[in-house]
Specification:
Layout: H1 2-21, H2 26-48, H3 50-55, H4 70-88, H5 97-120, H6 122-125, H7 133-141, H8 147-157, H9 161-171, H10 177-190, H11 196-204, H12 209-238, H13 250-262, H14 268-298, H15 307-319, H16 328-345, E1 357-361, E2 372-375, E3 386-390, H17 398-407, H18 410-420, H19 425-435, H20 440-443, H21 447-463, H22 471-495, H23 501-511, H24 516-528, H25 535-554, H26 560-568, H27 575-582
Parallel strand pairs: 1-3
Antiparallel strand pairs: 2-3
The structure holds zinc ion (ZN).
Zinc ion binds at residues 419, 425, 451, 454.
């Protein structure tokens, strides 16, 4: 900490000298001071949070393992306080607009960290926070250094894993049962990181025999420590005297978490009410579409009188239109190609071929969770590729593949490729992690902006003629909208209003046309996360509102391409901050 302070003082000193000699341009000088502040701050931040630094590719502090104890909590709180004080010494009003956004992003991050540590105290009740496998996986597999160096770093990181898991177990206080169960499951799943592929990497390396021995020992000690943690957690579940708290965090904490995580002007109550109203609209629209499609699929059969039954019956027929498992990969791969062509033809983006999106089979570590996903190079490793991962459905059982393909039918598959790849997550990730000049906006990403963007692109592509305005595409897209709206509704219902499971399952299955299995999965997700499920719709609503206002502001000069290019140029900043700039 002393060193950080010293560096900071030095930076300010350097700039004070600069000010004296460049009085005519003090604005520029303040901005250059801010840029230096940002660099020193970011380095200090990754030193304070080395585990987080692994996910964004900042290699410098990967060997440091911070024990999750009360000392770490106190350190984190004083770290936030120190940097908020330092930040507040900079003259916000005199910064340029771009740096004002950066200032606000840093401020929100530090205030949020401070709130998480001192008020939310997730470290006390969420046992799933403690899991070293994910960060170790990235440490080994990211190309941030040569293999030998990565393995040596891993070895250092694994030296104190026993103490790490002991501290983790000790700091738990009235945890939630749901997070204890999740922690058991995820830690068991993560054991494979220290298994065969690590042994193979060690063998393939040029480490000395002594180094190989130490690393193998450290990996074995880590496996023991994880197993011990799992055993202790299982003991907690079996202990009848163990107290568990409810997974529901209640209104006050939900409102505060919403403020820090979403960073929007809207309140959770407003978003909840808006989602409920929108849900009714989409439901009505789906009824009319299904009604008009009835004879196409059921000819002269009598229509069900129940609206939900009618909609479900038409969806059931549309879901039968899907790819064969062995063609699923090629279908999605071809879609990305077609989507790119469409974007260029319709002039929706300034299409840049410097950064390709590679469609590949889902790597083993991600397989089985979702059918398709976006994967980016971390912000500090700009040379890495952007992937659209597609699962190999020929590995599934026949029944599992059929059920997955009915959900991701011909129409849903197109929306999935739009959302995950083009122009959704993959394309946005390229603007944010590769093209954005400011790394700050990609390391402190706003989840609502990212998910909101992917959701926005689904509707935007259909508006521009993707899918030829077919009623089937519209109906499946509306079903997707219901899922997004029900995410907000059940998050609030469960976390704030304590609604029972039957009530939630009814919304998901009967009102939003989810299968029983999907609804069970979503219910579980809403017990172990809070606010995150709101991010899709919160981000989307903010982007849609911004586009309307921006169009009015620009008048004749408005073009969709200009809106997209300007919007994405701000990286993954909260939409609120982007709006302030774009509407100025
Ligand atoms: Zn998404």
């Amino acid at each position: 900490m002393k060193k950080i302070l010293y560096l900071f003082v030095l930076v300010l000193a350097v700039n004070c000298t600069g000010c004296n000699t460049q009085n005519a341009d003090s604005g520029r000088s303040i901005d250059s001071t801010f840029k230096k502040f940002e660099d020193v701050f970011l380095d200090a931040y990754w030193k304070q949070y080395p585990a987080a630094s692994i996910y964004i590719g900042y290699g410098k502090y990967y060997d440091k393992l911070v024990l999750p104890d009360s000392i770490a909590v106190a350190n984190n709180i004083s770290f936030s306080k120190h940097w908020i004080d330092s930040l507040n010494k900079l003259e916000y009003q005199n910064l340029n607009d771009n740096n004002k956004i950066s200032f606000n992003i840093i401020k929100n991050q530090l205030e949020s960290d401070s709130w998480y540590q001192s008020v939310f105290k997730q470290y006390e009740w969420d046992a799933s926070l403690y899991n070293l496998s994910g960060e170790c996986y990235y440490l080994i597999n990211q190309p941030w250094a040569l293999l030998d160096y990565r393995l040596k770093t891993l070895s250092n990181r694994l030296e104190h894993t026993k103490a790490y898991y002991q501290a983790a177990f000790n700091i738990l206080h009235r945890p939630t049962k749901e997070h204890v169960e999740l922690a058991i499951l995820q830690n068991q799943g993560g054991l494979s990181v220290f298994g065969k592929s690590l042994t193979d990497s060690i063998k393939a390396s040029n480490l000395s025999d002594a180094e190989k021995y130490i690393l193998t020992q450290n990996a074995a000690k880590t496996v023991d420590a994880i197993n011990q943690y799992i055993t202790s957690l299982k003991g907690m579940l079996a202990n009848k005297k163990q107290e568990f708290r409810s997974y529901a965090i209640g209104k006050e904490l939900f409102t505060q978490k919403f403020k820090y995580d979403i960073a929007a002007d809207i309140s959770p109550e407003e978003l909840y009410a808006k989602a409920k109203a929108d849900k009714e609209q989409y439901y009505k629209k789906m009824y009319h579409l299904s009604d008009s499609l009835w004879t196409k699929y059921y000819q002269t059969q009598t229509k069900p009188t129940d609206t939900a039954a009618l909609i479900q019956a038409v969806i059931d027929k549309i879901q039968l239109q899907h790819a064969a498992p062995e063609h699923f990969f090629d279908t999605l791969s071809n879609q990305v190609h077609q989507l790119k062509k469409f974007i260029i033809e319709k002039d929706l983006f300034d299409f840049d071929t410097t950064y390709p999106i590679i469609v590949r089979y889902m790597p083993d570590y991600a397989s089985g969770v979702t059918l398709a996903s976006a994967e980016f190079a971390p912000p500090y490793q700009k040379q890495g590729a952007t992937y659209y991962n597609v699962d190999d459905l020929t590995k599934y059982t026949k029944e599992k593949a059929e059920s997955a393909l009915q959900e991701v039918n011909n129409y849903m598959a197109q929306l999935l490729s739009i959302h995950e790849a083009m122009p959704g997550h993959c394309l946005q990730g390229i603007y944010s992690n590769k093209k954005s000049p400011d790394v700050l906006r990609s390391v402190f990403q706003n989840g609502a902006m990212i998910e909101g963007w992917a959701v926005y692109t689904e509707g935007m592509m259909l508006e521009n003629g993707w899918g030829n305005h077919s009623p089937e595409m519209d109906l499946i897209h509306d079903k997707m909208k219901l899922r997004e709206l029900s995410n907000v509704i059940i998050d609030y219902d469960m976390q704030v209003l304590n609604k029972p499971k039957e009530y939630i399952m009814h919304i998901l299955v009967n009102e939003c046309f989810q299968t029983q299995a999907q609804a069970e999965e979503k219910y579980h997700r809403a017990t172990v996360s809070q606010v995150q499920l709101c991010s899709y719709y919160a981000g989307y609503s903010a982007i849609a509102a911004l586009r309307d206002t921006y169009q009015k502001k620009m008048g004749d000069k408005y073009s969709l391409k200009d809106f997209h290019e300007t919007f994405l140029s701000f990286g993954s900043s909260p939409v609120k901050y982007i709006s302030e700039r774009m509407l100025k």
